[in-house]
Structure formats: C-alpha cells, structure tokens
C-alpha cells in the first residue's frame, strides 16, 4: 500500500500513512510550465498496489492537482485507488439555487469519483453529496478527533451556533458526557449573523467553560458573535472548535480576541490544527479495503 500526499494535505497524509501501519508515503513533484499549466509526477512502484491519495480541495489548483494525481496513480497501474478529500470545496453549491447555475458539489463529486474506487471525505456541507460520488463514498466526522483533544480539558457545556449543528453538539456532548445547547441563528449577510440563546439552558453559564462547536469556520462571523453572546453571560472560558478551519482574511485574529482557545482538525492546514482526523480516516480506508478485498 502507498499513501500519496497532495500539496494541500501533506501533514494529514503522513499521519494517515502512520495510522495505516507506516505504509510508504510520498509527495508528488509539481511545477508550472512556462504557459502556467500544472505538471505533476509521482514516484514509487504502484503497479498492483492499493493507493490512498489525500488532497483537500480548498483552491482551484488543489482540485486540478487532485484530478491529475488520480490519473497519475491510475497510469502507474495501481490496484485500487481510495481518494481522501478531507475538505471538499465547492460543496455549498449543492443544487441549482438560481437558473443558469451549476450544482458544483454534485459535478465535482462525479469527476473525483471517475478514477477512484472509493472516496472518503470529512464533515461534508451536506451528507447527501455522498450519493453524487458514483463509487462507494464515506463521510468521517471531525467530532471524535475534537473530543479526543477536549477530553483532557475542563469542559462544562457544548454550544452549536445554529440548529443545523445540533447533531454535532449532541454527539460531542455524548462523547464528553456533558450537556449541549444550540443557539438560534439568523444570517444577515455572508459575514454577519444574529444569534440568540434558547429560552431554556441546561445550566447557569456564569464561570463555566463553554466550547462552541462548528463544522466550518470561514469568515469567523458566526464564532465571533457566539463568543460575544456567551461573554455577556459572564462565562469563565470560551473555546472555539471546528472541523474545517478556513480562517479567511483576519478571522483567526478576530476569533482569538474573543475566545481563550481555538482548535480545528487537520483537514486544512492552519494555526489551530490541533486535533487529527487521521485515525478516523484510516479506519474507514481499512474497512473499505478489507470489505472489497478479493486476494
Ligand atoms: C453554517 O451553517 C456553518 O455551520 C458555519 O457556521 C458557517 O459556515 C461559518 O461561517 P462563518 O465563519 O463565515 O460565519
């Protein structure tokens, strides 16, 4: 077995290779042709091997690199190719909202699945997108990774910034044996939200250590508003925790100013990436390969 690391996911790919039993791990050679076109080349003897290719698709280049690497692995004669897309970009446009638009999540899922035998992603914007991959597709959760990290810290309450994240907060609450609550959220525009506490809370918030759990931190608007709301209740400490830390522009600094700690998983490289989803992804890869093994 081999693990190939796309440039967007080098550290996570190396961790996955360790979790798979220290299997060989390689990074491709990349360059730009004079006209700007992307060139990739992989090393290693992959003929007849199972290959796990890991690449988040945060940027357009990441996406093109992933598609090129998939083909390079296939051209090398790999036996089975499991493509891991820890952060799947363009996932929010998962349907045609206005006439004339593409459904980017579905379309990209089909293209990624084309040369893959299976696909693994983490906390997709919508779990329904799994169906678009046209090959066996699996979704890992960032919650167990975050819970492994938070278990070593004092936590009183898990807070989801919106009703849509209720299951995440509940699952984290179950893993940490702590209560959870979901805020009422109203989006004003792409960077601003209004949040309210629910009428009933499981405890008095004063002096408590509260963890705000979200799937994505993008502009930071949601977490900053949630932290301000909780600070008004005189909580003792606030931790912001997410699976995918995009931290656009000055989001990290703005969140840092209103929280005590910021944690994300390693689906994207960022200064808060302290919880690894490698064990969860490796477990899915192992399960898939053993369930489809004919040897
Ligand atoms: C929304 O439904 C998501 O769960 C996140 O809360 C949202 O994408 C975060 O975005 P931002 O950081 O821009 O507020």
Account of the protein in words:
The protein starts with a strand and ends with a helix. Helix 6 links the parallel strand 13 (209-217) and strand 14 (237-245). By secondary structure, the chain is of the alpha/beta class. The chain contains eight helices and 16 strands. The protein is globular. The strands form four sheets. Strands 2-1-5-6-7-8 form a six-stranded parallel sheet, with helices on both faces. The chain folds into two domains: 2-141 and 277-291, Rossmann fold; 143-275, Rossmann fold. Residues 161-162, 164-165, 214-222 line the site of ribose-5-phosphate (R5P). Residues 161-162, 164-165, 214-222 line the site of ribose-5-phosphate.
User: So, CATH architecture of the largest domain?
Assistant: 3-Layer(aba) Sandwich
Number of helices: 8
How would a crystallographer describe the biggest sheet? Answer: 6 strands, parallel
What is the fold named in CATH at topology level of the largest domain?
Answer: Rossmann fold
Terminal Cα separation, in Å? 14 Å
Count of separate structural domains: 2
Radius of gyration, taken over Cα atoms and rounded to an integer in Å = 20 Å
Number of strands: 16
Flag low-confidence runs.
none
Overall shape: it is globular
Label the structural class: alpha/beta
Which features does this protein show?
Rossmann fold; 6-stranded parallel sheet; 8 helices; 2 domains; binds ribose-5-phosphate; 295 residues; 16 strands; alpha/beta
């Amino acid at each position: 077995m081999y693990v190939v690391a796309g440039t967007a996911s080098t550290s996570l790919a190396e961790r996955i290779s360790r979790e798979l039993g220290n299997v060989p791990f390689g990074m491709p050679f990349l360059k730009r042709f004079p006209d700007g076109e992307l060139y990739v080349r992989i090393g290693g003897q992959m003929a007849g091997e199972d290959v796990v290719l890991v690449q988040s698709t945060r940027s357009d280049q990441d996406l093109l690199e992933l598609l090129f690497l998939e083909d390079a692995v296939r051209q090398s004669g790999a036996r089975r190719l499991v493509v891991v897309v820890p952060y799947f970009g363009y996932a929010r446009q998962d349907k045609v909202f206005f006439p004339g638009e593409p459904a980017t999540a579905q379309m990209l899922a089909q293209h990624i699945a084309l040369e893959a035998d299976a696909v693994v992603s983490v906390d997709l914007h919508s779990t329904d997108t799994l169906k678009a991959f046209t090959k066996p597709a699996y979704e890992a959760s960032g919650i167990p990774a975050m819970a492994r990290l938070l278990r070593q810290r004092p936590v009183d309450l898990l807070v989801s910034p919106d009703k849509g994240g209720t299951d995440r907060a509940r699952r984290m609450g179950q893993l940490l044996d702590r209560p959870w609550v979901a805020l009422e959220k109203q989006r004003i525009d792409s960077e601003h939200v209004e949040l309210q506490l629910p009428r009933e809370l499981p405890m008095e918030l004063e002096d408590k250590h509260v963890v705000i759990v979200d799937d994505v931190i993008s502009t930071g608007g949601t977490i900053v508003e949630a932290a301000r709301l909780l600070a008004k209740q005189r909580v003792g400490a606030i931790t912001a925790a997410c699976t995918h830390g995009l931290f656009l522009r000055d989001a990290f600094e703005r969140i840092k100013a209103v929280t005590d700690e910021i944690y994300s998983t390693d689906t994207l490289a960022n200064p808060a990436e302290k919880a690894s989803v490698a064990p969860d992804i490796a477990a899915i890869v192992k399960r898939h390969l053993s369930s489809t093994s004919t040897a």
